[in-house]
Amino acid sequence: MASPSRRLQTKPVITCLKSVLLTYTFVFWVSGIVLLAVGVWGRVSLAVYFSLLDEKATNVPFVLVGAGTVVVLLGTFGCFATCRGSTWMLKLYAMLLSLIFLIVLVAAVVGFVFRHEIKTNFESNLNLALRDYNVTADRHSEAVDTIQRTLHCCGVQNYSDWERTEYFTQRGIPQSCCKSQDDCSEEDLKDPNKAKLKVFVDGCFFLVTSTMESKMSVVAGISFGIACFQLVGIILACCLSQYITNNQYEMV
C-alpha cells in the first residue's frame, strides 16, 4: 500500500488530466461538426464537378459527413468516459481514436496515390459529355454549361474541341461559351473564325482540375489536421487510464 502523501500527489495529476482531456474532447467534438460542415460544403460546392466523375469519387463528401458523425458520437462517449473516470472506457476511447486515425491516414494516402487517375477519369467523362451534349439534356450537359459559364472556359483543351461534336454541326458552339450573351449569335457560333472572337478560348480541363485541387486541398488539410489532433487524445486517454489504475492499486 502506497503512503498517503503518494496518493495525494497522484490525485491532482488525475484531476489535471481529466480537465485537459475534457477540454480536448470538447474541441474534438467541435472538429466533428467541422467535418460535417466540410462534407456538406464539398457536396454543394463541388457537385457540378463530381457529376463528371465516377460514382466512387462522388461518395467523398458523404464519407466526410459520416466521419463527422462518428467523431461527434465518439466525442460524446469520450466526455462520458472522462467524467466517469472508467479505465476500460478510457482505453476503449483511445482504441477507437487510434482506429479513426488509421482510417483517415489510409484514406488520405489512397486519395494522394490515385489523384492522377481521378484527373484522367474526369477528362474522359468531360470528353464524353461534349460528344453527347444536349442530345438528351441530361445532368452531364447541364454540368458542362455550368462549368463553362462559371470558369469562363470552353471545351476540354480549348474551344475548338466543340468542332468535332455532333452539336456543332447543328448549332455551333454552345451559348455557355460566350463572353457576352448579347453579342453571340448562332451564326457566329457556327463559324470557328468568328466564334474565336466571341467565346472563351481556354479549355476547361486545366481550370477544373486546378479548382478541384485547391478546394480539395482545403478538405484534405482539415481532415489531416483532425487526424493528427487525435494523437493528442490517444496519449491523454492512455495517461489518464494509467494514472487511475495506479491510484486504485496504491489504495489497496
Give an overview of the whole structure.
The protein is mostly helical. Helix content is 79%, strand content 0%. It contains eleven helices and no strands. Helix 1 (4-45) packs antiparallel against helix 4. The longest helix has 48 residues, at 204-251. The radius of gyration is 27 Å and the shape is rod-shaped. The model is unreliable at 1-8 (pLDDT under 50).
Tell me briefly what this model is.
The chain has 252 residues and is mainly α. The chain has eleven helices and no strands. The radius of gyration is 27 Å and the shape is rod-shaped.
Write the layout of secondary structure elements.
Layout: H1 4-45, H2 47-50, H3 55-58, H4 60-84, H5 87-113, H6 115-131, H7 139-151, H8 166-171, H9 186-190, H10 192-198, H11 204-251
Helix pairs in contact: 1-4, 1-11, 4-5, 5-11
Question: Which descriptors apply to this entry?
Answer:
single chain, 252 residues, mainly alpha, disordered N terminus, 79% helix, 11 helices
Using the CA coordinates, give the radius of gyration: 27 Å
Low-confidence stretches: 1-8
Shape: rod-shaped
Quick check: average pLDDT? 79
Strand content: under 5%
Please give the count of helices. Answer: 11
- The SSE order reads HHHHHHHHHHH
> Strand count, sense and closure of the main sheet?
none
Per DSSP E runs of 2 or more residues, the count of β-strands stands at 0
Terminal Cα span: 6 Å
Structural class: mainly alpha
Instruction: Kindly report the oligomeric state of this protein.
Output: single chain
